[in-house]
Structure prediction request, 616 residues.
Amino acid sequence: MAATSSRLFRRLAALLGGVLAAGGARAVDLPEDRAEALYHSYTGGGVTANGPALLVRKSVLDKVSLQGSYYVDSVSNASIDVVTTASPYRERRTEYGFSADYAYRDSLITLGTSSSKEPDYTANSVSLDISQESFGGMTTTSLGFTRGTDTVGKHNAPEFADTAKHWQYRFGVTQILTKQWLASANFEAIADDGYLQSPYRVARVFGAAVPERDPRTRSSRALKFRAVGDLGHHDAVHADYRYFWDTWGIKAHTAEFGYSRSFGDAILADSFVRYYTQQHAIFYSDNAQQETTYVSRNRQLSSFNDIGLGAKLAYTVRKVPGRYELKLNGGYEYVRFKFSDFTDIRTGSLYATNASVLQLFVSGTF
Amino acid sequence: MRTDLHPLTTRRGLLQGSAGAALALMAGRALPAIATSSAAPDFTLRTLGGPNLRLAEQRGRVVMINFWATWCGPCRQEMPQLSKLYDKYRAAGFVLLGVNVDDDVRNATAVATKLGVSFPVLLDTDKTVSKLYELATMPSTVLVDRDGQVRYLHRGYLAGYEDTYEKQLRELLK
Amino acid sequence: MSARRLSIAVVLAGIALLGGCAIEPWVKPYEREQLADPVMKASRGTLADKHVEHVRDVREAARGATGVQGGGCGCN
Prediction:
């Protein structure tokens, strides 16, 4: 595996090198300079995760666009798993991201890296994305690759240490269909290798609690189709569908439908409804009635569905065309989760819960 | 768990297939639409001010035709630079025609006023002149000499292009 | 259609869509006004999207293909 990935890196580097060596003429625009400050919050099922995040993007010498981001997640966890098998806890996760975009002719090349740290888990990743316009600018094709390495630890157990590695391959095409409609298709294959479970979570076998045992490899594929159309009055509709399948036997469908509209020059509103449903992993069981190599009671791997209803609002505070723009944004989503084969062991009935996702942020382009 | 994956869907297969596709895509761009050293197609358009303006009547002066739209970021960045060029060289026989391709004329008026452009803005709402000039990018800038021949064609706008425009302009004004 | 065949079909369709087309682009660069409208943009903020993607990744087993959308003004 190490041999394959180093050969892979060499090939990608060669491709990149060839492209960069050919000089600076470009036809595609670098992403706009921007700055964002966000407050995010997730509350649901006994878990509260919130925090600030910052992002700055600036183009340098009109050749390269650099972006830096800082993201904090303070998690206070009293979820059903935690409450029934352990005690509630608080912890903080910090993530730093950095990326550089380079525009060459009709292509945009993005090199990125990110590092996420929390007391018992660190995750680092490097990514390369190439996006190319063709066919008179009507078709945009993108390719991406991310390689991640995680280090897994366990609270109060310094002898526990393990790693997990991830490879992600992305391919996407966006095609302009008419003056008002465009459609896109995205495919992503993800491979994981290593410790993919939680050192705290327990499974239930014949009614007794045992530490969970997940496979050490996982390979997944996702295919998503999206269509967006302008309806003529500064409003638009979009519809997405994604199908996901993996080697753990999970199959999931995601469907989203949304409507957006501008009110005057200053207000942009979005609304959407999202439906998600998944089928449990082969080795998942709420209460296993046989001994199997792998067993898990992780509700994220169970059969469940969730429906979300959301709305966003962007208010342009100040705009000087061609110079800068300042916006205030807010977004809220209400999600209802319903599990078909995960029970609340306190009551014995199937588990269901709600969640609220909130975002408030200031964004400026300059 | 599954070891019988098809070659194209294994990690290596996907990467090779994708890299091949990427290389294929990076080959070549579209060929130029309107040829240099040919007569600039004639047209008549309404100006923002009201009266019509005809290209052929500008014969004897150096004409720069700049195609722009309010929804085009690089266009809005370029226009103040063009305005400066126009003010500087208009006395020497330079005419700058800003052809706007917006569907709604009110947007064009609003943005042109906000940016304080000094050159005439022509309205091509039904896109006839854009089609005539076979525009391949937004913005597009065409430099026509005193005899009505297309001499330079610029596709797009990046900071610094205005220096090239000025150099070519001075050459044509001689 | 098996998952494997679907993956291959998508990759080939993508390449075919761009290779030697004898068809001319039918939406001209000067006709992209509606496509450049901010309502058509998929993203309202990079950090906000990152937050939502993280929430989904943690709560749901499905991951990936969240997608980069092209379109827009197509200028330069």
Summary: The radius of gyration of chain C is 17 Å. Residues 3-59 of chain C form one domain. The mean pLDDT of chain C is 82.
